[in-house]
Amino acid sequence: MTNEPSPPALGTAPFGDDRPDQEQVLLMLAGKWITGVIHVVARLGIADLLAGGPRTPEDLAAATGAHSRTLYRFLRASAALGVFAERSDGRFELTPKAEYLRGDVPGSLRNLAYFYGETTVWNCWGHVMDTVRTGEAVGPKLRGGKTWFQYLEQDAPEFAEVFHRSMTALNDARAPRIADLFDFGRFPVVADIGGGQGRLLAAILLRHPSVRGILYDIPTAIKGARELLEREGVADRVRCEEGSFFESVPAGADAYVLKAIMHDWSDTACEGILRRVRQAIGGRDARLLIIDGVLPELNTWHYSKLMDIAMLVNDKGAERTTTEWRRLLEASGFELAAVHPTAPPHCIVEGRPS
Ligand SMILES: C[S@@+](CC[C@H](N)C(=O)[O-])C[C@H]1O[C@@H](n2cnc3c(N)ncnc32)[C@H](O)[C@@H]1O
């Protein structure tokens, strides 16, 4: 397995090969089936069970409490996608793609596969027609009026752990690249707002021994952060703070990083968050560093064009173009200073107080 960040943001769309057009559309329509199949094998931990060598479906079913013949059908479908391989002796084995479904590898996608197929996430897609008619998100209606993060915090703390771990693993490859590609060393104190379990902050601090950090997030995220920061050897340079960026943001930083935060929320909610950051900055010469997608115009493939819909149905979130970023910053007390390319699918949108 490689440490390449996935998936590529720009370039050829994943279905842009030379298959007939109708077949490509048929494959697109099967997207939900693929999510379901990968969700099941990931959640059962099949890849971890195969780490020691090939095993039969009966053996895997016994180990996971699954129905044997049915598990075989899920494994066969996965193998057709190149995730696991079925051998002529009837046993299944790992493939390079299946490695990413192991729980203990850098860049693991196991928790993300669990998250994408989880009932509350999955059910939103059954109501997309409502969203396109009303412009409203489906998620809160299915979660008793709660936002995704209120739901995680109040109703599903165990699943919150799965979610936060999935974000951390996505950053295993991206965070060091972001820390390499942008000079965070010019900021004595970097605050990562909604920084999850601290993977990006740790990468920045490892790259710049003189920089100190503030990690700010909700309690379920901070819970897993301390262990990660200790493990990375940067805990003594990080102040962890629990709180809500809708209420306040810690003062005293020279750079305020918000990675994959803005895309979770509507423009109105984002303006609220950014005004809190602006208040925290006060008269300081600090920078706002939004790390998120920047959508290209017209037909160019970008992963975030699909993520945009996922964010929309979940909590009325959105991915944005440069023009939209500029407008959002200007409505919140900032001006757009620059857009820096970084690890795909993200850019760094740099703002300074206006
Ligand atoms: C999509 S995740 C991104 C996490 C991390 N920045 C990354 O790039 O992996 C969004 C983060 O926002 C945090 N968050 C959500 N609501 C929050 C709030 N009201 N105050 C602070 N953090 C919040 C979540 O706990 C989560 O860590």
Order of helices and strands: HHHHHEEHHHHHHHEHEHEEHEHHEE
Q: Which structural class do the helices and strands define?
A: alpha/beta
- The CATH superfamily of the largest domain is identified as Vaccinia Virus protein VP39
CATH class of the largest domain: Alpha Beta
The share of residues in helices is 40-55%
Across the major sheet, the strand order is 5-4-3-6-7-9-8
Total number of strands = 9
How much of the sequence lies in strands comes to 5-15%
Helices and strands in order:
Blueprint: H1 21-29, H2 31-43, H3 46-49, H4 57-64, H5 68-80, E1 85-86, E2 92-93, H6 96-99, H7 110-117, H8 119-124, H9 128-134, H10 139-142, H11 148-155, H12 157-181, E3 189-193, H13 199-207, E4 212-217, H14 219-231, E5 238-242, E6 255-259, H15 267-281, E7 287-292, H16 303-315, H17 322-330, E8 334-341, E9 347-353
Parallel strand pairs: 3-4, 3-6, 4-5, 6-7
Antiparallel strand pairs: 1-2, 7-9, 8-9
Helix pairs in contact: 2-5, 2-7, 4-5, 7-12, 11-12, 12-13
Residues 149, 167, 171, 194-196, 217-218, 221, 244-246, 259-261, 264 line the site of S-adenosylmethionine.
